[in-house]
Design brief:
Radius of gyration: 17 Å
Shape: elongated
Largest sheet: 3 strands, antiparallel
Strand content: 15-25%
Number of helices: 4
Length: about 100
């Protein structure tokens, strides 16, 4: 599991997520049939969802959240953090924005 703690002005967010190996490493390390029963459908789903992922990435990069220019982009940074929180929640995860 990996975590990102991102303090930005008066907000901060903590995002936890799994950090799997890349597809080839994961497939090579799975020797049991039960693992293959998961990995094959999983990677098929990922491959079939590429257009959705590209669309979601487009939404994210469309928010000009440049933290190096905090005075100009603070509202955009907050918008990006709120978008990320909503995205995690849509995926069934949890995230909190906390006052810094």
């Amino acid at each position: 599991s990996c975590s990102i703690l991102s303090p930005i002005s008066s907000y901060q967010t903590l995002i936890s997520y799994n950090c799997p190996l890349n597809k080839e490493q994961t497939m090579a390390s799975s020797s049991s049939s039960s693992s293959d029963e998961f990995t094959t459908p999983f990677y098929n789903h990922v491959d079939a969802s590429v257009p959705q992922y590209i669309s979601e990435l487009g939404e994210a990069v469309g928010i000009p959240s440049v933290s190096a220019d905090l005075p100009t982009h603070l509202p955009d940074i907050v918008k990006m953090m709120e978008w990320t929180k909503a995205y995690i929640e849509r995926l069934g995860g949890w995230a909190s924005l906390m006052d810094n």
